[in-house]
Each structure stands twice: as structure tokens, then as C-alpha cells.
């Protein structure tokens, strides 16, 4: 079968990715397995963006198109959690402030609150649900309370130009709605998580609150699937590993950003994939590729 010049150029470009063209210091860190997996996915038409940095030194361990703005689904709710954490010192918006859910907030998909009987919950509990289960209903109620404009302003104040929460969670996106819940770049999101770990986002107390909510995350189906830790109980560490992560899932989107600490080192990482989710095999290949990166990260820290 003849291959067009455009197709030949694309394959050549992604073959270079497999060889680690974007790698920088990747050879020293031995991230070859992850590069091979991401390169294979790129050749098959998956849009790939990834980055990993040493948590202490900030040294870039590997990067693949980390400046590209990618759809990140639920990862954008980290910006909402930051705004909520910043407001908790406000007497009119404390951790125990009760918020009611309404019919307008209702949305299907991920989350627990839609299956519970309680019509109202405290702000801090809603933030915990967002961190633990990417709770769509809790996200919309918190967004209604603080305002999407405030979340956007906070992101701009932090210097984020390629990362944003664009909208509330919707069952369907019409022509007048934002096409994605959120977008982000691997470079900005790894910086954000590193800054959270260092207590530099808003202040140390707010950063600690956000890290606490994110440490509850039970979705270890992507990169973190390689770490072998209990998805429902890993806050206290397991075999010397500590994980804080956030995932984003949508049709044709799989993204994860996180911090992994181990006995030897700590790393901040981000892997994002955009793909044609038309076959189960395509989705499984993406998840396998993300876990391949996870194995490299595990070897680096453990």
C-alpha cells in the first residue's frame, strides 16, 4: 500500500519521538520504556503530551510536547479546589458552610453525591468528594458558590496561561458551551503540583488543604496503575510510596497529573492523551502506554 508524503512525514516525526528526540535528560533517568510506548501511540494517531520533573531539584526527566494545550477533563477541578481552599479563612465561607444541591446542578457521570440521600453538605466535604471521586455534582455546587470567573481569575493570578477550567460539568455540550470541561499543558500542570507540594500556591495552609483533598483520589487506572498501591487507602504510604494525583476522563481523553514520592526520590508527572475512542482496543492501548510511563517513574523513585 502506498504511503502519502504527509503520512510518511508523520511517521518519521513520531519515530523520532520513540528514539527520545524530546528526551533531554531522559537517557540518564532511563525512561526508554515510556518513550517507546508513547512513540508507538503517537504513530497510531494518538496525540501525546507528557512531562516529568524531579520534585526536589526541578530537573526535567523527560518531556514530550509538554507545551501543547490538551483537553484534561476533571483535572481542571484542581483550580476550583485551590479557589475553595483560599476562601476557607472567610467567615462567610468556612469549611463547615452548608451548600445545597439543586436540580440545575445535577449531572450524571463520576461521583458519589448523586447516589446519596443528603441534600446538603459542608464545603470541605464537597471538596473532599471532588478530590476523591471527581464528583461532578459536588463540582457544580462548589462552582455555583464561588463562581467560574473567580476560578479563572485565580488561575491567571497564578500565572497559568495554558491551563483553565472552562465550564461547569454538563451531560451534553451544545454549540454555545465550551467544548471541554478543562484544558491544560503538561508543563504548567507539573509546575502547579510541584508548587502545591512546596506550599507555594496561595499560602502553605491552602496548599496543604488542596494536597489533602487530592490525596484521597481513588482513580489509579492510568499512570498510577503501575505503582501497585491500594486505590482506596494510600494516604499513609505503601512500601515507601506516597501518591497525590488527579485524573481526567472524557470521550477520547485520558489525563493524569501527580506527585510520587519514594525511598530514593520524588517526581512530579503529567501524561495526557487525546485519541479516537472508537474501539476498546484503542482505549486499552492508551492505558497501557500510560502505565508504561508509570513503571519508569516507579523505578526512578523506588
Automatic annotation (TrEMBL):
Residues of the Beta-lactamase class A catalytic domain: 52-273
Entry-linked InterPro entries: Beta-lactam/transpept-like, Beta-lactam_cat, Beta-lactam_class-A
Keywords: Hydrolase
Region (Disordered): 1-24
GO function term, MF aspect, one: beta-lactamase activity
Segments of skewed composition (Basic residues): 11-22
Listed name of the protein: Serine hydrolase
Origin organism lineage: Bacteria, Bacillati, Actinomycetota, Actinomycetes, Micrococcales
